[in-house]
Amino acid sequence: MNIVCTGYGVIAPNTNNIDQFLSNLINGVCCLDVYEGEGPNNETNILGLIKEELDEDKKLKRLPRVTKLGITAAKEAIESARLEVKDKKVGLFFGISLGAIREDVFQDSLIYTHQDQFRKIPITLAHYCNYHSITAAIGHEIGTNGITKTISTGCTSSLEAIEEAMVYLKSGKIDVAIVGGSDSPICKGTTYGFAKTRVIPLNQSLEEGAVPFQESSKGFAMSEASGVIVLERKEDAVNRGASIRGEIVDIVSNNDGIYIFSLDELGDQMKQALQEVTENRVPDYINSQALGIQINDQIEKRCSKELFDHKMPYTSIKSMYGNPFGVTGILQVIASLLSIEHSFIPPTIRTSKAGYEEMNIITRTKFQEVNEVAITNHGYGGNNACAYIKKCSE
């Protein structure tokens, strides 16, 4: 059974819709900025922020930003797919990593709790603490009330949401899957937490920091975004005359299986997942999870050497968009679908390839026919997820 994508939507830094996403990918536009005084000791930090105001009516104002981003991307995806959700068995699957942690409702309530100021706790707090309330609110706004799932496995969340949606589609429990990721996590709490583990690029310029495949990079750029795709069984999509963007062939996920406060420097499980998903297949390139953390990027280098002898083209869109946590995987999927549809490999911008010279890293947009793409993704907490997508045959 073939599972195909019939629509997609995106909102991200410097990206209000799918057309802007495509333009930025083709032109290699950096959507990140250096912000003064954002570090724990007033250092600079590199971030990917959505600066445009979100359109919202009165009833949406009480919802957290992460929910509003998800609604925006989901509406574009449904419109792109020309989908009518009524009278269909629709499943909604969202990957979310850090939820509404950045919101004042969440942050202030922690202070009020420690001060025993019960009256100051807003009635909305319980929903702001509950990740699934985000997905449920998105479903209400787009008109779905069937199977509704929230997957939270760190940065692999949205890719594993696709994996789960495929199982439901193949089982026949649903006819359409609306699958997305949404995260808006940037705040002092997340900045301080990741600064403690030394994986964010404090006091680094855009030439040095948050650069995939570059040994001078001291970490990744936190960013916010939402991406959504519509999945259907191929025969159903053909029967309703839908425009098919590409086929999701397979997704393989696993976990490093190490002590949670340790670091996996070998990447055996990532290699295993990529080897399994590419078995007997030859992708045109790897859409990599490399993000500027040296341990992670060195694991990508190891996979490149041991699985492809450094001959396989690699690229990472995180040089443009940073790391929007649970949205990362689905952004990579959408970027790969666009590259298949428009015949190009997006570049890894800003990198000098220092320390990664042996790899076949695409640093300038390469226009060529693209039929198949493999995707690598790693999440905080040890999950790995690798996907394989291809152009849909007639």
Automatic annotation (TrEMBL):
InterPro entries in alphabetical order: Beta-ketoacyl_synthase (IPR000794), Ketoacyl_synth_AS (IPR018201), Ketoacyl_synth_C (IPR014031), Ketoacyl_synth_N (IPR014030), PKS_Beta-ketoAc_synthase_dom (IPR020841), Thiolase-like (IPR016039)
Superkingdom, natural source: Bacteria
Entry coiled-coil feature ranges: none
Gene3D superfamilies: 3.40.47.10
Keyword Transferase: yes
UniProt xrefs under SUPFAM superfamilies: Thiolase-like (SSF53901)
GO biological process: fatty acid biosynthetic process
Record key words, sorted: Transferase
Keyword Transferase appears in the UniProt entry: yes
A GO CC term assigned to this protein in UniProt: cytosol
Single GO term (MF): 3-oxoacyl-[acyl-carrier-protein] synthase activity
Domain Ketosynthase family 3 (KS3): 1-391
Family of the protein in this entry: Belongs to the thiolase-like superfamily. Beta-ketoacyl-ACP synthases family.
UniProt-recorded name of the protein: Beta-ketoacyl synthase
